Amino acid sequence: MLWKGRTETLEVQDLYPVPEHKRCKALSAPFAHAWENTVRYQNPSIWKALFIVGWREFVSLGIIYFVKECVLR
Length: 73
What we know:
Blueprint: H1 2-7, H2 24-39, H3 46-71
Helix pairs in contact: 2-3
């Protein structure tokens, strides 16, 4: 896809379909709930809300990256 985008203009049909669990509809409800919980505090932060929603994926990717960089070298 990168090569095609470099050589010609990408169209909507050129893009890969988005998995259902990554669509806005599936992600907006957990984020809204996390945001409501962070607004209760004195200094609400969008970064805190994003971390609450995606910390598992962030940590698992960090572990994979650590293993790739430190162990497999």
